[in-house]
Structure to design on (338 residues):
């Protein structure tokens, strides 16, 4: 039985997606879930959030000869020749949380993914390599999850609709969409919905084309579980009025574009598809980055005193509520552990 993969995806960048994945990975682990985080963004921002620069230098310094298995690309690199996926050497973040690090070299894997997509509609013995390549992200994530008896896999991806993200999404059981309340996020939603449906249908055709697969394949469910509005603002000012304008349009756009349903007049505060509206927590982010920990773990020794300490408590409540909301969507019969 495979471990569920939750991918956080929006083809519009700059909405705080990587920070969201980072904090939820920590929160799920503190709630008792065993978590594997996998960085499938060639920019590797999630990896740099978890690991210090000197660790990254060692991890990414790979000689031209010889294979390592410390990053996503290093594990998949043999597929570019005549080899197979290497079992990943994950980074232990805490006893419940492990990371499959990203790698800037992953961008070079995109061409192979593009080549193998049409090849998966071939026949006979020629199908093994295309499916091995196209499902490689999912297979790698499952290998890591099996090592650590994980309950959840959280995947971070880049903000685009390219071949890397297509393969990441066909390996996803659940999709959560981070948004900002602006025109660009709404346009991103309009692009994303039809793309997910196309990828889902195209993957199903390819799976049906391989009558007797030689290894387990991802289902490509890509089930949308809701959206999260990032950088929510409560103050009364002109920027907030603009925020409300776009915020009020999100529920209808989400239903129409992502769920392929008729538009509705529901507003965000009462929209059941809105998993959370997260505050910006501007003042805490520099402290958290300096301390290399999530904002809800900041202590007085990190500078979180006075109003900052109150903001840390708020952050804990916000991320705990969001984690519970996600678990209720993907584990409807299993209440969240505390």
């Amino acid at each position: 039985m495979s471990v569920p993969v939750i991918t956080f995806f929006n083809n519009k960048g700059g909405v705080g997606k990587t920070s969201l994945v980072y904090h939820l990975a920590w929160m799920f682990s503190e709630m008792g879930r065993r978590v594997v985080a996998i960085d499938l963004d060639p920019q590797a921002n999630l990896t740099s959030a978890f690991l210090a620069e000197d660790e990254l230098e060692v991890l990414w310094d790979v000689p031209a000869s010889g294979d390592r298995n410390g990053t996503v690309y290093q594990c998949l690199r043999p597929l570019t020749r005549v080899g197979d996926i290497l079992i990943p050497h994950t980074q232990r973040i805490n006893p419940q949380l492990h990371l499959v690090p990203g790698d800037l070299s992953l961008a070079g894997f995109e061409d192979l993914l593009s080549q193998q997509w049409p090849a998966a509609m071939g026949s006979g013995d020629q199908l093994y390599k295309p499916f091995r390549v196209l499902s490689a992200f999912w297979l790698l994530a499952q290998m890591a999850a099996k090592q650590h008896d994980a309950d959840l896999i959280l995947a971070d991806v880049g903000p685009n609709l390219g071949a890397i993200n297509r393969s990441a999404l066909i390996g996803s059981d659940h999709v959560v969409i981070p948004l900002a309340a602006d025109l660009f996020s709404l346009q991103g939603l309009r692009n994303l919905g039809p793309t997910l449906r196309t990828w889902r249908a195209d993957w199903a055709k390819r799976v049906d084309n391989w009558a007797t697969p030689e290894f387990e394949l991802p289902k490509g469910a890509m089930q949308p579980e809701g959206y999260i509005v990032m950088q929510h603002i409560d103050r009364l000012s002109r920027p907030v009025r603009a925020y409300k304008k776009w915020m009020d349009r999100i529920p209808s756009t989400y239903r129409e574009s992502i769920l392929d349903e008729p538009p509705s007049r529901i507003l965000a505060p009462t929209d059941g598809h809105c998993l959370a509206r997260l505050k910006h927590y501007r003042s805490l982010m520099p402290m958290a980055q300096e301390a290399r920990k999530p904002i809800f773990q900041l202590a007085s020794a990190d500078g979180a005193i006075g109003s900052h300490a109150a903001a840390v408590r708020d952050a804990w409540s916000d991320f705990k509520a969001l984690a519970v909301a996600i678990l209720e969507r993907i584990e409807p019969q299993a209440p969240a552990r505390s």
Notes: The mean pLDDT is 90.
